[in-house]
Design a protein that fits this description.
alpha/beta, 6-stranded antiparallel β-sheet, 6-stranded mixed β-sheet, 27 helices, 43% helix, elongated
């Protein structure tokens, strides 16, 4: 059974999630406290044995909750084998292909809705149900002569359905033995009873529960087909030595006690032993017989290693379980290299914290998801790759993809490396309405807030990264112009379009904005080493000149390093190519309300230039610093760049003078000339010396 859409209402911070469609492997992405965990935990209310706590009800919906209200509902598609199983038990009803399961705040049990399939609510004596079956048996017993009948114990047939086939067979066998003894001389009674007792196990398998067609079907689904939602949160780390006496004591603690949300340490060790198929009772039995003990532990170690390595990225590991005096089990890890050599053998506790966390996570996750009862389950994972290196996250992703074949997997994540499918329904965004503290789920995730989308955008850009590292693409691409800031990239792209100069044969530019100044160097080297012809535009600051020195040390030529200049003089930033009056127009428009509050109509050129700093940006920052106590905060260079570039795009940039255009035109011509000169050189020398060999 697969969940295809769901809705959550009046649960914790969620008023109404709306109807949300989900696929077989769906990721929930959202910022902290947005409600991702709440959504996953709300879905567990669809488990048949779950109970609703009043503490989980939404405080803001007290009035609505006075009436019966559906808290969570799920619409499921049945797989063909499930539909067939129902048809075998209920041959007279139409095929059940879909099912709605829901839970309300007023009824303890989950409820079912079969949609357009009509089911009878009337008593049906023809149903092969426990109730009808036991009624027939009690009718038969009532015909037995009284002196025999009063010796029978009929409580089993008067009570609820047996909890298992074993209990049913046991009770039927006991009653049969008693009847055979008491009625040994009554051949007619024995013959009649044989009709009930023959093929006992098959009789149990065919029995339903319920006296109406609807209740029988509901009870059958509840018992045999009801979906299971399994929630995973956090896990404790496994360390090098396990005290088996303490472990046995922990796993025998009384049931019903509540512990922390994260997996208990004993549960984690239990999962380790589950993967190794290691029985602690067998261990106790063999500990005084070294040959048997060694054989047992070697087999367990091999099984454990085989089950962990599929999710372990990098060189494989070997896990060795060793029994030590004092009833202590040691977990010893070795690195197994591709050439077969084994190194770094030692206790797990000697490894780095990240290694121990990764190892423990994979043990817990692999064990919990490999247990037989999780087949055809709906797994709810809260941050399954927390603290893992991206390579290990991709290992977990392989595990999730494999699980999605026999289970449905819904998980919350912040990591771009844990997003595999960008199809709506397989990627959902959770946002928090801060004013009302309510969660909202975006099915069309591209309409979510930009900050929420950051992990998704990083993931979506994987194709761009792959295009960078493909040397054929790099060799045949237009030259890459790397700039130090996002505002530099905005200006180059906007003015390239604005000038429409046929003499500048560079359109369109291939501009790449570095994340920060200290990322310019590695970004330039990375592009260069993958076949791109790279040019770097630098400000004339001390930091930028240091970047230029490093670029030259890494074999970039002077032609590839372009300093900003105007009229043969170096300038501090790209903003200095814009005439001061033009730039201040954008500043005054952007900060109009703030400036008027401070008694300014406009910032004048004279007031700004009086600061005598290096360039217009530093002058304006000095003005802003004078008003910091007035709440001016920091001057936002990018916001001004957005204003200017937006006006260019809207063809509303009349405030930009011809002198500003000419200064940008000179920059473009300088770039074009440098590219031409560099191409003449590289045509002779080539870039192959920088390129890594292509992986096979």
């Amino acid at each position: 059974m697969r969940l295809r859409k769901f809705r959550v209402r009046a649960y914790r911070c969620i008023h109404d999630s709306g109807e949300i469609k989900v696929g077989d492997l769906a990721a929930f992405v959202g910022r902290n406290e947005s409600g991702k965990t709440t959504i996953l935990q709300a879905l567990t209310l669809l488990n048949k044995d779950e109970r609703v706590s009043d503490l989980d009800m939404c405080d803001e919906m007290t009035e609505e909750l006075k009436s019966e209200m559906i808290l969570v509902e799920g619409h499921f598609n049945l797989i063909p084998s499930e539909t067939k199983l129902i048809k075998e038990k209920f041959p007279h009803i139409p095929d059940i292909l879909t099912l709605r399961i829901f839970r309300t705040n007023k009824r303890a049990q989950v409820q079912y809705d079969f949609g357009t399939v009509k089911l009878s609510d009337e008593q049906n004596k023809a149903l092969n149900s426990w109730e009808n079956y036991t009624e027939k048996i009690l009718d038969f017993i009532s015909t037995i002569p009284n002196h025999i009948r009063i010796q029978f114990d009929t409580k089993f047939f008067e009570g609820p359905p047996p909890s298992s086939k074993e209990a049913y067979v046991r009770e039927m066998t006991e009653f049969n033995n008693n009847l055979q003894m008491l009625a040994s001389d009554e051949s007619q009674i024995l013959a009649e009873w044989a009709k009930f007792y023959q093929d006992t196990e098959k009789t149990y398998d065919d029995l339903l529960v319920g006296t109406t067609e609807k209740t029988a079907l509901e009870n059958f689904i509840l018992e045999h087909l009801h979906p299971r939602f399994v929630y995973f949160s956090d896990y404790k780390k496994i360390y090098g030595n396990i005290n088996l006496d303490e472990y046995v004591k922990e796993i025998k603690r009384p049931e019903g006690l509540e512990y922390a949300e994260e997996f208990d340490k004993a549960e984690t060790v239990k999962n380790l032993f589950y993967l190794a198929e290691l029985d602690t009772e067998k261990l106790e039995e063999y500990k005084n017989s070294p040959p048997k003990l060694i054989k047992l532990l070697n087999a367990a170690s091999r099984r454990l290693t085989d089950r962990l390595n599929p999710a372990w990225k990098g060189d494989p590991i070997h896990v060795d379980l060793r029994y030590n005096p004092g009833n202590v089990m040691s977990v010893v890890i070795s690195d197994v290299h591709r050439d077969g050599t084994v190194t770094n053998t030692g206790l797990l506790s000697r490894r780095a914290e990240g290694f121990k966390w990764t190892f423990s996570f994979i043990v817990n996750f692999a064990a919990e998801t490999q247990k037989a009862e999780l087949k055809e389950a709906i797994l709810l994972l809260d941050e399954p790759a927390r603290n893992l290196h991206p390579a290990q996250q991709m290992g977990i992703s392989d595990l999730l993809k494999n699980l999605a074949g026999s289970n449905q997997v819904l998980y919350a994540t912040h990591s771009p490396f844990m997003i595999f499918d960008y199809t709506p329904g397989n990627l959902l965004v959770v946002e928090l309405d801060k004013r009302r503290h309510l969660s909202r789920i975006h099915y069309d995730y591209w309409n979510a807030d930009d900050a929420t989308l950051i992990p998704i955008l990083y993931g979506l850009s994987r194709g761009l990264v792959e295009s960078i590292v493909d040397r054929e693409i790099g060799t045949n691409s237009r030259p890459v112009i790397i700039v130090e800031t996002m505002s530099d990239a905005m200006y180059l792209n906007a003015f390239d379009k604005f000038l429409e100069d046929p003499n500048i044969s560079m359109n369109p530019l291939n501009v790449v904005a570095a994340f920060s100044k200290n990322s310019v160097l590695p970004l330039a080297i990375f592009y260069r080493n993958h076949g791109h012809n790279v040019f770097v535009i630098l400000d004339n600051t001390a930091e930028s000149k240091k970047i230029a020195e490093y670029l030259k040390a890494n074999e970039f030529t002077d032609l590839q390093i372009i300093y900003l200049e105007h009229g043969g003089k170096q300038i501090e930033s790209m903003e200095d190519l814009i005439l001061a009056e033009d730039y201040l127009h954008a500043v005054n428009q952007t900060y109009e309300i703030k400036l008027r509050k401070e008694g300014y109509r406009n910032l004048a050129k004279e007031e700004v230039s009086s600061k005598n700093k290096k360039g217009i940006i530093e002058d304006i920052r000095a003005v802003w610093a004078d008003h910091r106590e007035d709440g001016w905060n920091e001057f936002d260079v990018e916001e001004i760049a957005r204003y200017i570039c937006e006006k260019i795009a809207l063809k509303e940039a009349d405030f930009l003078t011809d002198k500003t255009k000419d200064q940008f035109r000179s920059l473009f011509r300088l770039i074009a000339e440098r590219i031409r000169q560099q191409q003449n050189i590289t045509a002779q020398v080539g870039l192959t010396k920088f390129q890594k060999s292509k992986p096979k």
